[in-house]
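Exercise 4. Each item below gives a protein and its sequence. For each, produce the structure-token representation.

Item: HD/PDEase domain-containing protein (Actinoplanes missouriensis).
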Amino acid sequence: MIPTETQIRAMHREAAPSREAFASVWTHCRIVWSIASQLMPPDLDGDLVRAGCLLHDIGVYRLAADDPYVRHGVLGEELARDLGLPEVLSRFCSHHTGVGITAADVTAQGLPLPVADYLAESAEERLVMYADKFHSKSTPPSFVTSDTFVVAVSRFGADKPARFDALTREFGQPNLTPLVSEFGHSVR
Ligand SMILES: [Fe+2]
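Answer:
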């Protein structure tokens, strides 16, 4: 019921509008999976975490040129549903952004999303959300340290650093060094 890495890779190839978009998003998703693998508590469902990492950003392919980036989550949930994937998987797309978006955030910041909570609820969702914070698809792509992320997320709400701290306490700090060597992306 949970698709394999090969099956999810094929979904990416099918959905990506270009080779470049596929390379960027797929590489990022694999890196997020590597980070989550390092931090995986033994009681989590590893197949679910793998699929969640590999699928979480698939909505990036559906962003129109004028779509705000924050919409990639809900677009990904739609795409995953269109692919026939169950809700337990499509939720990773819409519930991984930042350290969680609340309905109050949507209203207060005027975010272009349906007013709802987009929070990681299961431990698997929390791990995918957390692992995602350590790598960016920026041009050029880079790894992101905790310190850099905390500074960046602070501007989205006073509660955000504490939410990130709670994830750090739950899962610990990843070791980015082997991934920096493997993928050749710098650290910021
Ligand atoms: Fe991501």
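Check: The pocket of fe (ii) ion is lined by residues 28, 32, 56-57, 132 (CB under 6 Å).
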